[in-house]
Design a protein that fits this description.
The protein is mostly helical. It is built from 7 helices and no strands. InterPro entries: TPR-like_helical_dom_sf (IPR011990), TPR_rpt (IPR019734).
């Protein structure tokens, strides 16, 4: 994902989509979750939160135990709904972060984010 960090977002999307097409062509599953996650992260960085959510949920369907997917889906949902006080979304983000922390218990930043999120008051 070096191209993503160089700011070549659209090129990164094209490469990830080509990689997915190759996996589908070869009828392969291995690596699909990582590619979908990378694609979701790039969409999120572009502010395309609907697309990011869709591909991250697809990645989670492929591999529900991958910590990177759980964390990034939680971030995308929080960004997508940051201007609302939707309790349902908040609860899903909390659930995703808790699942992530069971896989990565030493991630203090995620633990602090979860603490902040659960301390917020929602209508």
């Amino acid at each position: 994902m070096l191209r993503r960090y160089q700011g070549k977002f659209f090129q990164a999307i094209t490469y990830q989509e080509q990689a997915l097409a190759l996996l589908e062509q070869d009828n392969e599953q291995e690596g699909g979750a990582n590619i979908l996650t990378n694609l979701g992260v790039v969409y999120g960085e572009l502010g395309k939160f609907d697309e990011a959510e869709d591909v991250l949920r697809e990645a989670l369907h492929v591999d529900e135990m991958q910590d990177f997917i759980l964390f990034n889906l939680a971030l995308v949902l929080r960004q997508k709904y940051q201007d609302t006080q939707c309790l349902t979304v908040r609860n899903e983000v909390v659930t995703l972060l808790n699942r992530y922390l069971r896989l990565e218990p030493s991630d203090d930043a995620a633990r602090e984010y979860l603490r902040e999120l659960t301390s917020l008051e929602f209508l």
